[in-house]
Amino acid sequence: MRIAELSRQAGVPVATIKYYLREGLLHAGERTSPNQARYDDTHLHRLRLVRAMVQVGGLSIAKVREVLGALDDPERSEHRAMGAMSAALTPRHFEHDDKIAYEQARAFLKRNKWPVRTKLPAFQALVDVLAAARDVGHDRFIDHLDRYVDACMTMAEADVEYAFMAKTRDTSFENVVIGTVLGDAVVAAVRRLAQAEVSGRTLGEVKDEDEPEPDGPDCVENEWDGD
Predict the structure, then answer these.
(1) Is 50 helix (H, G, I), strand (E, B) or coil?
(2) If you count DSSP H runs as helices and E runs as strands, how many of each does the chain have, helices first?
(3) Which residue, 76, 94, 110, 140, has most beta carbons within 10 Å?
(4) Span of the secretion signal (predicted)?
(5) Cα–Cα distance between 44 and 50 in angstroms, integer?
């Protein structure tokens, strides 16, 4: 297919495709003339993968390149490739030099009998969050971590199952990327929906959209609806 058809099927502008080609996120097409190339389903597939990482996952081009590098490295084991992609997908926070937050994060891992891997980007991200909480006077935020463990373990098991249920190594790695990028996005969305549900239930303001709006001056706007 020509680049215009690739653009139409992928829903990505031609200019963006050319940018991805220059940045090495998309492999070159087969040259049919000095100014034209032919593309196939592998380009369409990779383009959709890149679009998911950029548009849904909010990753930078540099991050996408890093993830694709791990995805395409034939020397990495599945476990190491998953670790590399997890590291690439972990947001980089400001690295706090906070010894209390550092020890809190270590204690959290030990308490849950997880290996203490302080060099993992996720560990530093946790330290940064705990340090930021302490900076704004929320020292007790650490108490909430243990309540997250069961939910996160269930999600992690689902992620790994989704990733490695594939029949080929390449598909497994791609599942890791998609499962992590889209999984992060869906967890954030479902968490917001759950917060709206629990808040409404707690305050007695639960109402479906198809229920009639109350009339009169006593009607209070539902901030969760974004109106």
Answers:
(1) helix
(2) 9, 2
(3) 76
(4) none
(5) 10
First to last CA, the chain: 45
Q: Does residue 56 contact residue 187 with C-beta atoms inside 8 Å? A: no
What are the boundaries of each domain within the chain? Answer: 1-56, 76-203
Q: Which of 189, 192, 182 is nearest to 89 (CA)?
A: 182
CATH topology of domain 1-56: Multidrug-efflux Transporter Regulator; Chain: A; Domain 2 (1.10.1660)
Burial of 196 (0-12, 13-18, 19+ CB in 10 A): middle
SS3 call for 18: helix
Q: Global pTM?
A: 0.67
The H-or-E segment that residue 159 falls in is helix 145-164
Token readout for 35 is: 């100014």
Beta bridge mates, 33: 36
Place of tokens 């996952």: 57
| Closest listed residue to residue 79, CA positions, set 208, 16, 173 | 173
**Each residue's pLDDT tens digit, 38-92:** 999 989 988 988 888 888 777 889 888 888 887 777 776 767 767 776 777 776 6
Range ranked top by mean pLDDT from 12-16, 97-101, 219-223: 12-16
Describe the crossing of helices 78-89 and 61-72 by its angle, rounded to 10 degrees: 180
- Residues with Cβ within 8 Å of residue 146, at least 6 apart in sequence: 108, 111, 112
pLDDT higher than threshold 60 for residue 210: no
**Quick one: tokens of 96?**
């706090």
